[in-house]
Design goal:
Elements: H1 10-24, H2 36-43, H3 47-59, E1 63-66, E2 70-73, H4 78-88, H5 94-116, H6 119-138, H7 143-156, H8 160-183, H9 188-206, H10 210-234
Antiparallel strand pairs: 1-2
Length: 238
């Protein structure tokens, strides 16, 4: 009836610990693990045991390795969504379906970030907001800072699944931001509107006002949908 308890291999212990840290959100998608020598020393294990654990984590999709660049946390949802999204967005109307998903995720994200954000996370949002301001003043597109601002809000929710989902959607968020901003490039007022909308969301989170943060993010999302409609109609895509 009873079976002998088998002692775990050191590499299994390392695997379980790193996996647990990833699933808890302490290691976020895209975050780089410490160098092999440093990590082995911190864990108090041999580099051979660490390599075995890393190989297992890699095979199961928790991390990915860049030759000469290190080891990074992979989005948990990556394998599930990537190929599906690639096919999905071939439809013209897919961008609007994506915006509906963003509206649901990001309004809730702003609401929750206003409740849970740390001072460091709010400071990170401010950093990307400042980058957007500089881009606006220089007449630059500023799409990457825009996307990073939204990702920073998702991090501030401390909801691990949302963080992974938003990281997985990051490319498409950046793409939408680029499409909208690049076509508004010659209109300083539109860029000022976008900057003000992001500022309003940031202030609401800074004030710890969840309802206001939700509504300001909703206003921003609806503005983007209107701009996309205008862009697609102009290009006769819909």
């Amino acid at each position: 009836m009873f079976q002998k308890i088998k002692p775990k291999k050191i590499s299994d212990e390392v695997y379980e610990q790193i996996k647990s840290i990833i699933l808890s959100g302490k290691l976020k998608p895209g975050e780089k693990l410490p160098p092999e020598r440093e990590l082995a020393l911190e864990l108090g294990v041999s580099r051979t045991a660490l390599r075995e654990a890393i190989q297992r984590l890699d095979a199961q999709g928790f991390i990915y390795q860049v030759h000469g660049g290190g080891t990074f946390v992979k989005t948990i949802t990556n394998g599930i969504l990537d190929s599906a999204i690639e096919e999905f967005v071939k439809r013209d109307e897919a961008i609007f379906d994506l915006m509906e998903i963003r509206k649901i995720l990001e309004t809730w994200g702003a609401y929750t970030a206003a409740q849970r954000a740390t001072e460091e996370e709010i400071s990170n949002m401010e950093k990307f907001l400042n980058e957007m301001f500089i881009a606006k003043e220089r007449g630059e597109i500023g799409h990457l800072s825009d996307a990073n601002f939204h990702l920073a809000i998702s991090h501030a929710t401390h909801n691990v699944m949302l963080i992974h989902l938003m990281k997985n959607l990051f490319y498409w968020i950046e793409k939408v931001s680029y499409e909208v901003r690049s076509r508004m490039y010659t209109n300083p007022e539109s860029h000022a509107d976008l900057y003000q909308q992001h500022t309003d969301v940031y202030i609401a989170i800074l004030e710890r006002n969840p309802e206001k943060a939700y509504n300001k993010m909703l206003t921003h999302m609806e503005y983007i949908v209107c701009e996309l409609n205008r862009i697609f109609k102009k290009n006769k895509k819909i």
